[in-house]
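Progress report, Aim 2. The chain analyzed during this reporting quarter is listed below.
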Amino acid sequence: MNLLFVCSGNTCRSPLAEALARKIADRRGLEDLSVSSAGTNAQDNVPATDEALLVGMERGLDLTGHRSRPGHLEQVKQMGGRGKVHVIDEYASGIVNTGISDPYGGDLDAYRNTADTLEEELEKLFDRLQS
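Predicted structure tokens for the chain:
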């Protein structure tokens, strides 16, 4: 299974989602899983923001090797993702939601809140994938 997390810039939300998903998958013993991230407006090869790095460290995640890469929703659909592209919190709950807030430009608490929400929604996502 392939999971691709896409946000705007691929420097905070999607790298955190990628790292958290790997951690959750490891904890659940899911081995046949490929996890990556990209951004719809991402510049190529930009590191994760300092805040994302810090919040990642607080959670035992290493984002130091992360480098952004562009990825557009339509490209994902054309690569075989049509019908398989979902907003994390919508897929996890089955309810139409607004998505997960972008902490970019915010303080550490904004990044922590986003990471908390991501972790909660990813747990639900993996529950659904495993059922």
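The CA atoms of residues 51 and 105 lie 9 Å apart. Strands lie at 2-7, 34-39. These observations will guide the mutagenesis work planned for the next reporting period.
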